[in-house]
Amino acid sequence: MTADSAATADSAKTAAKGEFKRDTNYLADRITADGRDGWPVEPGRYRLVIARACPWANRAAIVRRLLGLEDVLSMGICGPTHDQRSWTFDLDPGGRDPVLGIERLQEAFFKRDPQYPRGITVPAIVDIPTGQVVTNDFKQMTIDLSLEWRAHHREGAPDLYPQALRDEIDDVAEKVFSDVNNGVYKAGFATTQAAYEEAYTKLFDRLDWLSERLATQRYLVGDTITEADVRLFTTLVRFDAVYHGHFKCNRQKLTELPVLWAYTRDLFQTPGFGDTTDFDQIKEHYYVVHRSINPTGIIPAGPDPSGWLTPHGREQLGGRPFGDGTPPEPPVDGEQVPALAA
User: Fold this and answer.
1) Which of 225, 248, 262, 285 has its CA 20 to 30 A from that of 33?
2) pLDDT at 4 > cutoff 50
3) Nearest-angstrom CA–CA distance, 287 and 271
């Protein structure tokens, strides 16, 4: 279906006129400081499961890094490809997650509901003692990491969801989700020309809007990195490697949109962003799994990623990436991604 689903592209839901419709019915339980849903925040109790390929999971990995939650919320990493059933832990020795002891993320969903009827998606947070998924609601998950896990943030953690800016962050993030984050999928999985062109137009209209907004300010909302920037970054960083060709989002490449290219490079070079991004796994997922779009499964050799490390010049707009905070420490052992050659 998409990078956040265990289904293939052939199972993507489309309406009668060929529009891609994302299933947004997630396990909505929340892990909170007061435990009101029965899941209290407890260091070491839960495991965040991601796949480097998935943009929604990439969000959770970035936020966890920026907030310094590595010691209290462990992370399992699925491989870049999956079959009809589930994401799998094929990167781990023996093909099993070393903490949960499972081969497929599906097992944790079935622990929660043996008849679980929807896609097996990442990111997901699993309760280690019971082995069952608590939530796969990716939108709420990162907000809760910022707000409900605050007692366990590292010293110097940024405020990614400041109270005074939440309405604006939510408004920008919703526009970005509809037209950009999900918009590339609407274009890529459309099954009629009209549905594709509608999604394509909305996508590039929104990218033009973002270019205009970011021409005079370094970040999307306020003068520091917020949740809104995290949500936009994970789509833009995949744009030229995947969405431009694979999803036919080809009016321009990201590298041909000067403001957005500089903005995304700025974030990529910020600790927590580029060091959670694995271009090889991203490309392998989309081009291998989506056989209805790419029947041969051939993975493109390009594009050359070295440009991500070139100067971006965004410092001239001011802004403070982490506000009054500090950059996170380097990734912990076992969570590094391949470094790009300068």
Assistant:
1) 225
2) no
3) 28
Token readout for 148 is 């409900």
Strand partners, 46: 127
Rounded Cα gap, residues 296 and 324, in angstroms: 50
pLDDT for residue 136 is more than 80: yes
Catalytic residues: 54, 185
Q: Is residue 12 pLDDT above 50, yes or no?
A: no
Phi-psi region of 153 (alpha: psi -120 to 50; beta: other; left: phi over 0): beta
Between CA 45 and CA 248 the distance in angstroms is 42
Cβ pair 238, 284 in contact under 8 A: no
Q: How far apart are CA 157 and CA 67, in angstroms?
A: 5
> What is the phi/psi pair of residue 132, to 5°?
-110, 150
DSSP bridge partners of 74: 47
Summarised one tens digit per residue, pLDDT across range 201-257 is: 999 999 999 999 999 999 999 999 999 999 999 999 999 999 999 999 999 999 999
Cβ burial 301-316 (10 Å sphere, 16+ → b, else e): eebebeebeeebebee
Apex 120 CA angle, 188 and 90, nearest 5 = 95
Check whether the bond before 330 is cis (ω within 30° of 0).
Answer: no
CA distances from 200 to 187, 211, 237, 250 (A): 6, 16, 18, 9
Predicted local distance difference test score (pLDDT) of residue 341: 76
Residue type, 193: Q
> Residue 317 gets which letter from DSSP?
G
* 11 has pLDDT over 80: no
Angstrom distance (rounded) from CA 323 to CA 149: 19
User: Would you state the torsion angle of the CA atoms of residues 112, 29, 91, 273, taken in this order, to the nearest 10 degrees?
Assistant: 180
- Helix extents (H) in 177-275: 183-188, 193-214, 227-236, 244-246, 258-268
Segment 48-88, tens digit of pLDDT = 999 999 999 999 999 999 999 999 999 999 999 998 889 99
